[in-house]
Structure formats: C-alpha cells, structure tokens
Amino acid sequence: MNISIITTQEEHYKYSQEICETIELSALLRGTGIAKRTPEYIQKKMENKDAIIALDNGKFAGFCYIESWQHGKFVAHSGLIVHPDYRNLGLAKKIKSFVFDYSLKKYPEAKVFGITTGLAVMKINSDLGYKPVPFSELTSDQSFWKGCQTCTNYEILKSKDNKMCLCTGMLYDPKEKPKDPPKHPFNVKISNRLKSIKEALFLKK
Q1: Quick one: average pLDDT of 138-143?
Q2: pLDDT at residue 178 is higher than 60
Q3: Rounded to two decimals, what is the model's pTM?
Q4: Quick one: which of 31, 106, 147, 203 has the most CB atoms within 10 Å?
Q5: What's the rounded Cα separation, in Å, for the pair 129 and 172?
Q6: What is the rounded distance in angstroms from the CA atom of residue 86 to the CA atom of residue 55?
Q7: Cα 132 to Cα 167: distance, rounded to the nearest angstrom
Q8: Gap between the Cα atoms of 3 and 19, Å rounded
Q9: Which residues form the N-acetyltransferase domain (predicted)?
Q10: Which domains does the chain possess?
Q11: Pick from 58, 131, 67, 153: which is nearest to 103 by CA?
C-alpha cells in the first residue's frame, strides 16, 4: 500500500459524502455516540485547510479535521476515521499525529483538546502528551457543546450542564513541556474501570 496523508485540496471535496457515511457507520457498529456532520460541513473544513485526508492511490483511507473555538484559544481534532479496509495498520495514529503537528503550526497558541469514549483514541492522545481533564478545563464556547446534540448521549451531557458525560475530556497545553515522552501514560485498566463507573451512573434505567 502507498498511503499518503496530506492537507486537503479542492480535488478532495468529492470524498465528503463517503467520509460522513464511514464515520456514521463506524459509530453505529461500535454502539457509541458521535456528533454527526454533513458533507457540506466536511467540505467547508477542506476549503479552510482545516482537514487531513489519507489516500491509497486515490482511494479514501482515512480523515480528520480541525475545529477552533474562542478565537483560536482552543482547537479540537474531530471526525477521526479510518476506512474499514485500512484498519489495524496503525493508520489512525499516523493521521492523528499528522493533524496534531499541523494544528500546532496553524494555531501555535491554542490548547488542543478532545472528548471521546474510544480507548484507542485515548491511547493515541496520551502518547501525544494529552492529559485527562474535567470538562471545565475545555472550551466554554457553547457552539462546541451544541455540536454534541446529534450524539446518542447528549441528554446525559445536558443533564450535567455540560460538565460531565460518558466521554473523557483530554487536553494538550503547548505551554507545557514538549510532548515526548508523554507525561501522562495511558492505563487501559483504569480507563475501562472509569468508563464502567460512568455507564453505571448515567445509564441507569
């Protein structure tokens, strides 16, 4: 395979629909919540050079985009997806590392954050130097949290006044020490335990 990871150009707009479908199908198969995006939204990110795409000789292999909040004070990487044909190859980590470095160059003063329920994403973030934090340390921009409305867990987030959900908040502050080696090693057992506790608390019938 000859997979290239690049910043999106106009020639990549045609992949917008496939990207949205792949993201949504992946969420359904995992049974996890996800904020849905339209092809038009994805294309807008591509136009603004806030998106990264992975291609294998023209075939869509993976994608991720950048969102900025509070006038560039915070940025987040969203929509990270790898096509089923290219999973278990370490591509997600390569895409995440690429978009991470790219966002630090484009938004050098911004804190980089994310919320996720995926252990694989948490592991990648931890390796890059993110640390788990309460939601209060993330952006206060309501437009970010509004984007969670299409997530299946939104009612939990809403009931907790945007302060807690099944997702884990993670943050990288560029003003701290360099990302290597990671300061906050990821522990799968602890993360699984915390996730189980959250589910027991929030998903009570």
Answers
A1: 90
A2: no
A3: 0.79
A4: 147
A5: 6
A6: 10
A7: 11
A8: 16
A9: 1-151
A10: 3-202 (3.40.630.30)
A11: 67
